[in-house]
Amino acid sequence: MLLPLTNEPRDYAWGSTTLIAALQGRAPADRPEAEVWFGDHPGDPSITPDARPLDTWLAQEGAAAGVEGSLPYLLKLLAAASPLSIQAHPTRAQAEAGFAREEAAGVGLDAPHRIYRDRNHKPELIVALSDEFHALAGLREPADGARLAEAMGASGLAGRLSAPDASIADVIAWVLSASARDEVRELTRRAAAARSEEFAADFALARALEEQYPGDPGIIVALLMNRITLRRGEGLFVPAGVLHAYLDGLGVEIMAASDNVLRGGLTPKHIDVDELLEVLDARTGRPAALRPRPVAPGVEQYDVPVGDFSLRRVAAEQGAVLPVGGASIVLSTDGEADVTGVRSGGTVRLGPGEAVLVTPDEAEVRVSGDGEVFIAGPGVAEGVGAE
Hints:
Number of strands: 21
Largest sheet: 7 strands, antiparallel
Helix content: 10-25%
Strand content: 25-35%
Oligomer: single chain
Structural class: alpha+beta
CATH class of the largest domain: Mainly Beta
């Protein structure tokens, strides 16, 4: 069965008025459009042609189409005009323990200081649709951070980072502590005023962040992270515990179906420093861009080390035929593509920004046309053939 899906863009303040609109070929929006969710997550489920939320449709009709329970993933269009909050996500074990702890304490699911809103982990993958997509991910090497601190005239911070037993995690704990508030405010001013050939891009980012979040300790946390630039089609996989923030650009994002977020700055929302440090992966190093692997003519797969989701990119002109190993969502990102259920024979034509759910009873789906689509599904998937 093919089930077209729609949803309204979410108007988070960091969203863009132009990126999703341009993708869909319409005029700029009059408010930020940050994310469009495709899935059955109860926070904002997609809408089916008969106006039912997808979670309701699946509960009522999913079993007959071969869908067992909820989708294990959430697919999004993400459009950032300014930085998202710095954040990390827990492992499944940490999420289960944290959820139970907050439930026992009577913390409401909608409480602003609630951290664990479900029992699941939230590994995620972002793939660039814009020519460039900018992000922060992972922690710098301490020596690199010390050179940056010296370049901004912050000898005290440089000393913390160049100590024999230096730990970026310990420095982040100090930056986010209440006792360091005044000193960190001075550091943010120094960072915004600093000039350096080696760290020009870092200090340009600090100036932009200081304008938006004056004195926010997250500015210094951002300088202790790696700047990442993705080219169109490249991905960034973010596992549990890795500190990250998306800065600007348009992308396709897929993640395990969860809403568990530990924040570390650049946000007015609640920050629990102790809990953030509990889940933080303190290893240093620069994450590599993830390039898709060809698996069939016109079909590329993004290999990720989790079983919650898979993501394939398909050039529709190749006429690819792909297996449907579970409930899958096909999202168009360029041109026009016809999606045909091999078993039912039904066809849905997709334009950019449009999506359709393919239920497992189809077994295979054919993609044709002159566009590009991404196919999200559970677990590992492979492209197997072409027309």
